[in-house]
Amino acid sequence: MFELLGIPPQALFGQVLLGLINGSFYAILSLGLAVIFGLLNIINFSHGAQYMMGAFVAWMCLNYLGLNYWVALLLAPIIVGATGIAIERLLLKRIAHLDHLYGLLLTFGLALIIQGLFRNQYGSSGLPYAIPPQLSGGQNLGFMFLPNYRAWVIFASLVVCLGTWFLIEKTKLGSYLRAATENPTLTQAFGINVPLLVTLTYGFGVALAAFAGVLAAPIYSVNPNMGGDLIIVVFAVVVIGGMGSIMGAIVTGFSLGLIEGLTKVFYPEAAATVIFIIMVLVLLVKPAGLFGRQA
Question: 99: buried, middle or exposed (CB in 10 Å: 19+, 13-18, 0-12)?
Fold first, then answer.
């Protein structure tokens, strides 16, 4: 049988695809974290729980309201993003002037509360969510079989990530956001409503997490622990890319997903730890992260 680097091509490209899928989720989630930290200086530890909420809202839309996947993909980020806005206005706003540690502890507590509420209501076992009929099946590429839904996840992630980067780095609204971060008093003097920008930015970051949750629902079972299992890896991705770096979150998310997938092929024993090994090495050489700026 034809082999690449001693590995059957189906196995090699299968793991590359799996790595890109995981990288898609790493990129969207770390992008949301980077947006919130980079523009608001909040270490949002509830991001994993908000990702889980996105998957559950999609499941509820289907099972309680009969709404299909495409409606849920639009509706769930709006609903969960609205809860993020409420959290920012009711809780985070009150500790905005304090050290980052207070925000981390508050959002960590929120994550435990949210996960506990969903666990009590739905249990810990996974709930199924079917792949939409339009994206069922796959393509035979000759060297591997490409499921349509997996390809859609990678495509949708790239579009959302690059769209967010363009919005923040290349538009007038993004320049307002960055100016409000650098000097909120001066920015407000120009008539820009800085508190509203802060609230909407947090809601947008939370909506990104929910969007990733809806994408993940048909691939992984919908369960209250799905965010908690992922959030530590996503924080490692953000640290490697550079805290608050938008492009760093995107590039590092996809790259680390790919590296993780290839590690499963060539040295499976290190697959669960390779991202953290890279994080340690990056912190030793470049503490601000690959795309971060030294304070």
Answer: exposed
Residues 98-118 have pLDDT tens digits of 888 888 899 999 999 999 999
Rounded distance between C-alpha atoms, residue 56 and residue 60, angstroms: 6
Contact 54, 209 (CB under 8 A): yes
* Separation of alpha carbons 49 and 230, rounded Å: 10
- Nearest CA among 249, 202, 228, 236 for reference residue 52: 228
- Rounded distance between C-alpha atoms, residue 195 and residue 188, angstroms: 9
pTM for this structure?
0.91
Structure letter (DSSP) for residue 147: E
Q: How far apart are CA 92 and CA 129, in angstroms?
A: 33
d(CA 205, CA 201) in angstroms, rounded, equals 6
Token output for 142? 């000759």
Contact 226, 51 (CB under 8 A): yes
3-class DSSP assignment, residue 243: coil
115 contacts 225 by C-beta, under 8 angstroms: yes
- How far is Cα 178 from Cα 115, in angstroms, rounded to an integer? 33
d(CA 237, CA 249): 7
> Residue 140: enclosing H or E segment and its boundaries?
strand 138-140
- Spatial CA neighbour of 75 closest among 171, 221, 184, 207: 207
Task: Write the pLDDT tens digit of every residue in 162-186.
Answer: 999 999 888 888 888 878 777 777 7
Residues 6+ positions from 101 with CB-CB distance below 8 Å: none
DSSP-assigned states of every residue in 118-163: HHHHH-SS-B--PPPGGG-SEEE-SSSEEEHHHHHHHHHHHHHHHH
